User: Fold this.
Amino acid sequence: MQRPSTRRQFLTGTGLTALAVTAGCVSSGSTSQADNETEAATSTPTEAVTAASTPESLDTWLDDANGYDGEPRTYGPRSQPVIMVGEGTDGGLAFDPPVIEVSPMTNVTWDWTGHGGQRNVVALDGTFDSGRTNAQMGTSYHYIFDEVGEYRYVSEPHRDEGMKGAVIVKERESSGYPAIDQWLGSTGNFDGTITDRTGRSEATVAVGAEGNGGQYAFDPPAIKISTGTTVSWEWTGAGAAHNVFSTDGSQMASDGVISTDGSPLDSELVSEEGSTYKHTFEETGVSLYTCQPHQGLGMKGAVVVE
Assistant:
C-alpha cells in the first residue's frame, strides 16, 4: 500500500490548534508570518536520511543513542505515548524516552522542549517526517503506527551526535484475560504469559525485580493460582521502597464483573530486603495490583484465581 507523504510545513498563527492528518501532524507555537517566511527563505535543507548505511541490528544502531539504557519503554494498547524532543544533560541531544515499544494503531507524539536549538524527527526509511527543523517549545508532531516493524529515527542535524531513537511496533501476545492484557500492557516484563502456580498452597512473587528500566517489577508479573492459595510477595531490597496495592480495593472476575473479596491488597511501603507480605485468595477472579510509587513505570501485577 502506498503511504501518503508525511512531510509537513510547521503551522503558524496565534492559538492554532494541531491539524490532524492520516499519517502525521505537526504544530507549533505562535510565530508571525514575516518570521516564518524569513525562516523558510534562509533554511537550508538537511541531507536526506537514508537507511542504506545503518547496521542490520537495531541494538547495534542504538549503541550511541543518547539516553538509551538498553531497555525500551513499553506502552500498552490504547496508550498515547509522548516523546520529548531535546532532553538530556548534553545540550538536549536526546529523545526521552529514546526507544519505545507499542502495539499497532498507536498514536505517538513528539513534543519539543525548546532546549538546545533546532530539532526535527525523521524516520530513516521515510515512514514519517516532521519537516524542517524547529527550536520552539510547544511544537509537536504525531504519527499513527499501523504496521508491525522497527522504525529508526533521528534529529537530522544531530544524528552523528547520538540524537536518535526507535519505535518498535509489535503485536502483544494475549493472556486470554482482556483485563490483564490491558492492565499489564505497559509492564516491560510481561509478554502475555501467566505463570501457572495452581495446585499449590503458596506462591511467591518477587518485589523489586529487574524490569521497567531498573528494579521496578514484580516477578512473575502475572500468576494463576487455586482458591485457598497464599501469595507471598518478597522484597529484593532493590529499586527503592515498594508496596503491593490493589487500587480499587476489589477483585475483578474474568468476565469483567467487580466483586469485593473483603481483603484488598494493601501492604506497607517497604525497602528492606527479605520483607514479605502475604494474602490468601479465597474467591475466583482476577486481582490487579501495583506498586503505587512506581505505577507510572509499569510496576504492576495480576493474580488469576481459579
Q: What stands out?
A: The domain at 24-169 is CATH 2.60.40.420 (Immunoglobulin-like).
